[in-house]
């Protein structure tokens, strides 16, 4: 008889890419994860993975079986959610993808509160500044910045008026002349963020005379937004960050907003692949995050 926990290990191994990565997510050992998949293969009478000493990939039968395994796990979760909703509760897995800096500095604490309020929720959190493929990967929703251009996705606004902020630490400003206009940034060490393969070194502002873009440069670049923020707090240069990311730093005086209200809009959305994923749990989370982001921006 096929065991549901073996199905979960199989699906998690596919998503994580290895037994060791899946084991970390499932809080078990790689040996336990490997044994679960081998037990499932024995029940099915086929090999689900092609293994070598250096790599592992799905076999043809594994590719055929994967959507059915996902469907079985989703059906089980849907059943649990249905029973919980009948009792006025929200429950079941909630799989989220969040950007690194917002995720670590803001959302982690909020999600703790949300889960304590709704203990039936099982949270799976993916923290990365690489955009997850919501159409291919088993993620219920992603918190994303900027306009959402893919019309196939369902985007729900969380903070539509959020802006980017050119910011620096008091220490940096004590050692360099404070920029009075965005054009002055060309004379400063600007800390740049990498999105995919693109270095975001063109910073856009909404000035009284209209939109204005400045090409900046600096001696530090990272594909992790949290790293860029830490560099700025440490006095290593000027960063261009989401106001939500640095709200606590601005309030504590660790960073200074150089051009208040002039950075480009960076709206925040909760994005899902399908409307069918807008479960009561996800809708409750959407409302919770909206309230928190409104309060943070106030």
From TrEMBL:
InterPro entries from the UniProt entry: LysR-type_TF_proteobact-type (IPR058163), LysR_HTH_N (IPR000847), LysR_subst-bd (IPR005119), WH-like_DNA-bd_sf (IPR036388), WH_DNA-bd_sf (IPR036390)
Keywords: DNA-binding, Transcription, Transcription regulation
Family as reported in the entry's similarity comment: Belongs to the LysR transcriptional regulatory family.
Keyword match Transcription regulation: yes
PANTHER family recorded: HTH-TYPE TRANSCRIPTIONAL REGULATOR (PTHR30537), HTH-TYPE TRANSCRIPTIONAL REGULATOR SINR-RELATED (PTHR30537:SF21)
UniProt superkingdom: Bacteria
GO biological process: DNA-templated transcription
UniProt keyword annotation of Transmembrane present: no
Residues of the HTH lysR-type domain: 2-59
Listed name of the protein: LysR family transcriptional regulator
Molecular function GO labels: DNA-binding transcription factor activity; sequence-specific DNA binding
